[in-house]
Amino acid sequence: MSHQDKVSELADLQARVAQLEEQINAEAARAAFRPKGFYTGYYATTGFMLGIFGAVASLMFNVVGATLTGRHPLELIRAYLTFPLGDKVFELPPEQNGLMLAIGCCLYLGTGMLLGIPLYLALVRWGDGRSLAVKFVIATIVAAAIWLVNFYGILSWLQPRVVAMSTENLIVNRVPWWVAAATHLVFAWTMVLVYPLGEFRPYQRVTEQS
The domain containing residue 186 runs over which residues? Predict the structure, then answer.
């Protein structure tokens, strides 16, 4: 092989190396995202989205329970509306009552979405890869903690200080403790059932799966 042939072949090899390096860099840039450590942002967002299922389930639980006991189907929502409206919520005319209850339902669902964040984070942190029974235990403990903090750590202290109203109509006095606890449990148990919908599975291209 002449010197000129060697130079020409070397140039071809260098061009091929440059082409391969460019392809490798392009493939690395398109590589699937792999989170490092606990993917808090994803699971918090997922808990927020899935919280709507728990909120709907707990609301329906209260609607059915109130109906069976001869109460207004949205008695729980009316009780929660005493936080912004006080005693006035029980004196609204019919044309305003329906609107306020609808707004109350929306606020209830929104609150459920927010509470879905810590609950789902707890399920992933301590229940990922474990049995369904363990997840139910975790959800029960977290739901009980949320109920105690919300009712007896926040509402019982905050509502009398920001809303002028009678004591008997305070949320903690108007909603029986077992109703509030059961509502939180139904919410949490529903989150366990929809838990698989939020599991993180990195996208894999066909070339990575083979």
Answer: 42-198
